[in-house]
Amino acid sequence: MEDKLMKGLGFGEIDSSELQIRGGASSPLWQKIIDKVRNMIDFIGDYIPKLLQGFRDGFEAKPLIK
To answer: Are 45 and 52 in contact (CB under 8 A)?
Structure first.
């Protein structure tokens, strides 16, 4: 059933060399995008705990109204 659907739509399997030629997941552009996303996730992972700790320290240190 799936084979008929794939052939009817004009899709076909490709091997890894064709995937590289056509700009698959191993292309330099995808690697740059993956690196940027990884850097953003690392930044957020490092920044959020420090931000929350700063809020805790700021609000617990002294009362706002005397």
So the answer is: no
